[in-house]
Each structure stands twice: as C-alpha cells, then as structure tokens.
Amino acid sequence: MRNNLANSWKVYAGFAIAAIVLFAIAPAMLSDFRLNQLGKYLCFGIVAVGIGLAWGRGGMLTLGQGVFFGLGAYMMAMHLKIADAELRGQDVPDFMQTAGLTELPGYWVPFTSPVVTIVGIVVLPVLVAVVLGLGVFKRKVKGAYFAILSQALVAAFATLLIGQQKTTGGSNGLNYFRSFFGLALNDPANRRLLFFITAATLLIIVAITRQIMYSRYGELLVAVRDQEERVRFLGYDPANVKVVAYAVAALFASIAGALFVPIVGIVSPNDIGVVPSIAFLIGVAIGGRTTLLGPVLGAIAVAWAQTSLSENFPSGWTYAQGLIFILVVGFFPAGLAGLGAVARRRKKRSDTHPSATSDIATITTDAGTVPAEGAKTP
C-alpha cells in the first residue's frame, strides 16, 4: 500500500514538472520561433507514444505510422484550405484555381464542416487500422513481414498523394494556411495558444497510455508479445489484442498530424513517407520503446538534433542518424531510458551479494580470522 502511494506521488510529481516546463518555463525562455519548433517536436512525441505502445509493449514493428499521421494532417489541411477560401469569398482553394478547378472534389466537401473534420481525424484512421489489423493479425502475420507490409502501405500512400496534383497539391502538398478554426495564424498569441493545445494533448495522451499500460489489457498485451501461443491457449485471441493497440497508435498519430499542420504551416508527401516513418521509429528506439516517457523524449531529442545538426551538416545528418540507431540497437536495446534500470539492477545485485566474497569465507572473532561454517579450507 505504501509503495503504491509513493509511486502515485511520483507520477503526479512527474506530470506537474512536465506541465511547469511546457506551460511556464518554455514560453518564458524560448522565442516565438523556437517555441513553434518545440510544438512541432511535441507532435512527433505524440506519434512516439503510440509507437511505444504498439511496438514496445505489443511487439508490432510499426514502420507505417506515416499513413495515419498523413491522414490526420491532410484532413486538417483540407479543412483549413477550404476555410481560407471562404474568407476570400472563393469556392475552391487557391491551388485548385491554378489547376483550373471551379468546384470542390467530392471527397473534399465533408471537410467544409469543422465538426466533420474533427470526427474524421478521430474515426477514419482508427477504422483503417482496425481493418488492416484484422486482415494482417488474423492471418498471424508478424515480425519483419508486418514491418515490410506497413512500410509498403506508407510508400503507396505517399505515391498516391503525389499523383493527385490537382486535388492534394501533389509533391508540393498543402500550405499557406491563414486561420485555424477562426484564429489568425499570423498572430503570435494564437500560435502560443496552439503550442499550449499541443502540449496539453501530449500530457493527456501520456496519461491515457499509462493507464493502458498498467491495466489488465496492458498486461495481456505484454503477454501476447512474449508468449502469443500461450495466450491463445488461455482462451484469448491475440489478433484482437494487437488490433486494439494498433488502432490506439493510429489514433495518436492522426491527432499529431492534425496538430502538425497549423504549427508547421505545410504538409506534403515528404512529411509522411517512408523516411519520416523510420525517423519516428528511430526516436522511439533511442529513447526506450518499452518505457512510458522514453519514446517521447527520444522523439523530441532526435527531431531537435535533426533540426540543429542539419543546419550545419545538411548532408551528414542522415548518416549520423543511422549510426545512432545502429549503436542503440546493438549495444543499448532498451534505449537510453533503460540505462537507469540497468544501473538499479546492478546496484540491487551488489547490495544482495557483496563483492567481498572469496573461495574461503571468513569470520572475524576475538581470536582472529577463522573460516566460516561450511567454507572450504585449503
């Protein structure tokens, strides 16, 4: 009981510290530009939380999170472009006018409504993940085969977007957003509000994920990862367990994509393709995929390093990123967050088994040092 109470206080303290950093220290110390960059990194952290749940706890190597990130991002971008066109008194967005279109394509029309847009961001990626997950996991596809399949899916999605030049902007994507649900994006106060929304969303998602991890379902998910056949023998369907985690990860990625668009001001196939999907995974691996905060901190650190180092070494960052990933996977498979756990285990072993042991155990008495009972003598 006392341990549970202590752990609860640690969790509350951790969330309080994170809230102070995000809502007080960061806005006070960072410029508007750097704060906007941090908001972008937090979006990547939201994606990483879902990957940590699906991959770290469920053993599903999700190399295709760019699909769900892109779905949320493009749905939000479509609504923002329609809203901007309405502010200018036009029927279609500017890039469609350049392409010669005079009316919205059929699949754009629902996103004229902000309510439908929000519902779509939440529901559509989950439906896609459920359908895909049932089709894959029911056939017992896992491991490298699932990773290749998910990566092929994201490559196909990016190619599809590039081919729709007139309706999705093609390789240029959608950009130059002026407003976000009635808020002018060129106003620094509104951009700070957008950062606060993103930070609050990240904290809420981390809290939800913690509840999932330490629930009965979370234990079952880990059991499926480690002993899938034994779980099936106990009467559970591992496919259904995996689908739930995969759908939750898809939901988080979609929400992150929707927040990414107004923060960055652009979304294109380059933001959701194979390379970004792998970058999401690298951040999670470096931070520690089996932990709660490791994926978030790893994703933010990798994104920050990419921005900082690519400014000075534009051609060398990709090699550095690959090298870091190889080092972590090869020598620190639990990620940087796992180093603390390793240190604690070693300390516990040293406390339990003192290092001052030898072949001849001794006891110090008033008469001197004599062999202990049961010890071997020369």
Automatic annotation (TrEMBL):
Q: Where in the cell is it found?
A: Cell membrane
Any stretches that span the bilayer, and where are they?
A: 12-31, 38-56, 62-80, 115-137, 193-213, 243-267, 279-305, 317-343
Record keyword Membrane present? yes
For membrane topology, the record states: Multi-pass membrane protein
List, as start-end ranges, the regions of compositional bias called Low complexity. 355-367
UniProt-annotated stretches for the region Disordered? 348-378
- Its domain of life reads Bacteria
Keywords recorded for this protein, A-Z: Cell membrane, Membrane, Transmembrane, Transmembrane helix
Q: What is its main location?
A: membrane
Protein's name in the database: Urea ABC transporter permease subunit UrtC
